[in-house]
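Anyone up for a design puzzle?
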C-alpha cells in the first residue's frame, strides 16, 4: 500500500504526463490522490518542490549505476550498449517518467538546485563517456552535440517500442545508437 506522500507523487506524475505540468493544479493532484488539498502541502511545500522531487527521483532511478554489474574487461561498445539497454527498458517500464523528462526539457520548470542533484546521479557515467570520447572511441564532433543526438535517437527508439507494445530494444536498435556514437574506421 502506498503512503500518502507516494500517492501524491504518483498522482502528480500521472497528471503531469497526461496533461502537462503547468496546466496541472495542486487541487487536481490532491483530488486524484484522494487527499485533502492541504495534505499535499504537508508533504511538499509547493508545486515546485513536488516537481523537483519527481525530477530528482527519476534521475536517481533511471540513470544511477548505468554500468553496474559490467565486467571490468567489457569493451566500450558493450558498456555503451548495455547502458543504453538499461535506460530504454527503464523508461518503457516507467513511461510517465519519460514523458515528464521530455516536458521539463521543453519548458524547464525544474529548479537549478534539483538539476544539479539530478546530474550527480549520472555524473560517473558522464565522466566515463567523456573519457571514452577523449580516448577516441566516439565521433570527433562536439561532445555535448554528440550526446544530444544520441539521446534524441534513444528517445525515438523508446517511443517506437512503446507504440509497438514492446518492452525491450533489439540488438539492431542498440546498434543504431552505438553507430551514431562510434568513431568511423
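Challenge accepted. My sequence:
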Amino acid at each position: 500500500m502506498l503512503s500518502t506522500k507516494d500517492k501524491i507523487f504518483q498522482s502528480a506524475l500521472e497528471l503531469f504526463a497526461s496533461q502537462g505540468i503547468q496546466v496541472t493544479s495542486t487541487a487536481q493532484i490532491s483530488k486524484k490522490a484522494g487527499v485533502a488539498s492541504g495534505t499535499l502541502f504537508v508533504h511538499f511545500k509547493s508545486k515546485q518542490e513536488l516537481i523537483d522531487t519527481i525530477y530528482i527521483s527519476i534521475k536517481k532511478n533511471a540513470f544511477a549505476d548505468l554500468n553496474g554489474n559490467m565486467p571490468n574487461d567489457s569493451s566500450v561498445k558493450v558498456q555503451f550498449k548495455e547502458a543504453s539497454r538499461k535506460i530504454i527498458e527503464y523508461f518503457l517500464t516507467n513511461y510517465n517518467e519519460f514523458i515528464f523528462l521530455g516536458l521539463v526539457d521543453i519548458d524547464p520548470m525544474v529548479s537549478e538546485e534539483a538539476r544539479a542533484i539530478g546530474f550527480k546521479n549520472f555524473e560517473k557515467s558522464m565522466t566515463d563517456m567523456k573519457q571514452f570520447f577523449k580516448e577516441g572511441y566516439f565521433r570527433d564532433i562536439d561532445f555535448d552535440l554528440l550526446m544530444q543526438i544520441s539521446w534524441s535517437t534513444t528517445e525515438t527508439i523508446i517511443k517506437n517500442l512503446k507504440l509497438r507494445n514492446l518492452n525491450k530494444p533489439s540488438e539492431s536498435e542498440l546498434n543504431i545508437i552505438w553507430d551514431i556514437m562510434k568513431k568511423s574506421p
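A detail worth pointing out: The chain has ten helices and no strands.
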